[in-house]
Amino acid sequence: xxxxxxxxxxAHVLAWGYAALLLIPVYYFLASAFKDNGAIFSSPLGLPTxxxxxxxTRAFDLGGLGNAVTNSALVTVGGxxxxxxxxxxASFALARSTGRAAxxxxxxxxxxxxxxxxxxxxxTFLLAAATGLFHTRTFMVLLLPATAMPLSVVLLxxxxxxxxxxxxxxxxxxxxxxxxxxxHIYAPISMPGIxxxxxxxxxxxxxxxxxxxxxxxxxxxxxTTQLALxxxxxxxxxxxxxxxxxxxxxxxxxYVVYTVLQRRMQAALVSGAVKM
Amino acid sequence: MPRxxxxxxxxxxxxxxxxxxxxxxxxxLAGCGSLTSxxxxxxxxxxxxxxxxTPGAPAFAAAVDTFRKRNPRTPVKVLSxxxxxxxVYETSKLAGKEADIVLVNLYDKSLAWTEVGATVPVxxxxxxxxxxxxxxxxxxxEWTDGKGRLRGFPYLRTNWPVAFNTTLxxxxxxxxxxxxxxxLLTAAKKLRRKGISPVTIGGNDWSGQKLLLQVMQTYMRxxxxxxxxxxxxxxxxxxxxxxxxxxVELRKGGVFADSAQGLTSDLMTTQVSxxxxxxxxxxxxxxxxxxxxxxxxxxxxxxxxxxDAVYERPTIMRANASLGMWIxxxxxxxxxxxxxxxxxxxxEEIVSRFVxxxxxxxxxxxxxxxxxxxxxxxxxxxxDDVSECVTPDVYVPAAATQPLIxxxxxxxxxxSDARKVRTALEKAYRSAGA
Lengths: 276, 434
Known about the structure:
Number of strands of chain B: 13
CATH architecture of the largest domain in chain B: 3-Layer(aba) Sandwich
Oligomer: heterodimer
Distance between the termini of chain A: 40 Å
Order of helices and strands of chain A: HHHHHHHHHHHHH
CATH topology of the largest domain in chain B: D-Maltodextrin-Binding Protein, domain 2
Helix content of chain B: 40-55%
CATH topology of chain A: MetI-like fold
């Protein structure tokens, strides 16, 4: 018994060491949100001397975070809704089809992975200008799902292929139409995959910066958190306490969503369907 | 066989939740006011770098509020960006949705705006509105391009003095503020012995580029320095070559903070504010960010020069071409409202707000900041105290600005000799096609 424990020691050391590697920056980050520059640089890992919310309130005011978080939420939730609305039926159709056209279509979605983000920037800008949606969040709500479709469709298609066809046959015999089959058979069984798609896309949409900078632009009433945060950086001297406080505030929604969806995500990862 | 559950109470609940969520999101996104960026065809749109935690941002916000109260029929929309403003403005201009007035520095990309029609020359407006006399000669000169076009209305300017923490110098046994290169080298050794960084500098950004070019000017008259900055012909100027050798000598003498090639202006200000470094060549606006606890130990002066320098006294730069108000083609179409706003910003009342907010003005005023003693001290430096050398901003071609900043890191990197530094700087100009 003792030998078994000893043999596990390196694993414990590595696991705890890795956990510390992850936790120390998080601690540094949280502690800094309650300090001023002097304290951050003189004792980076020291405990804050007070838990005053001053940095948070200043971050909220200076960075206009109230509007920014709302805008990020609107763009992200809107983008996710459109993504699921398009990806679910597309994956459903691809998963059930066996013809050559379906294979070509599936590969066409996969080709989306090959388009570099930066390469699409200028055409996207021209599209936004031509549609009259430049400097609007609405364009981002429409654009983000387009960027997410390759991953979402490929992932969900793999999940839906694991649904036994007998289930659909039974449903059909009970009088279910195509939409009902999608809603009541495929969607519930693919829920871990849907959760994975939602979580991955949530992180991408929430953290998107480059396209938001160019498309949404400079309007404080429109901009997302990723555009609001840099306004707290000043070349003539940044208040790092305020900056970290603002970053903590903008990370909270990410943490909440991850906490809610992590089990489903883990289930999806171990179920084999995402191992492509 | 599994039972297929068709519409059920659970599904109704889901449908209800989906409808409710859609009901909340759709109006928020589709509501007219929130869907578009709020450009007011009958109002005025300002695009400003004076936002967030930028020095002068509160003064600007208060000024806009006052303007709104006095002009209730002119809705004013304020857009803001930090360092990315120029890029955002340019894409807005391409889409024809640019703001009417842009408040940004004459630097980097904006140097080319008048030439390419991104903004309009304001010579005529300045004359018609009788604002010429309000502007200092230095800024007026630098805001005028090679073709005689006034690129915008100069507003802020920046002093670039050197901050000396006298308490740290005393602790290291340095008597007085160094004014010569020999004194600086001696001070650096003493400071290092006490574990204090001598000169902190953002060797990774524009602040390092400024100091490099400031030191390089030690052996160059202003006319020669301007020519070298325009052309990038560092090898062709004996003064530039000697200046770069001096810079390398200072670096080898331990004058600059460790790993200066990785520091930024932001971290430089932080090191001064936390009294980790004794000396820094700083923008006056950055000095306004130094907390009072550190500021009371700091005196301002110029960069030490050797006996055989072309300048008699320690040097400083005065960036006349700091922030100004540019008029866009959209703004030109509502010039009456633009005029009202610019006249308002040029009024003594508003200028005074900025002065007391810790900014240096490109406009005539006899006021000094009381809240920001270091900023005021920089303003009060005269030719009896310091010699003014050339600020590179308007002489370095726009396309070469960023490559030159990237090349600056080589100068601060240990092991780079003067020839290597010179080659890197010249390569930066060549890569930019300058």
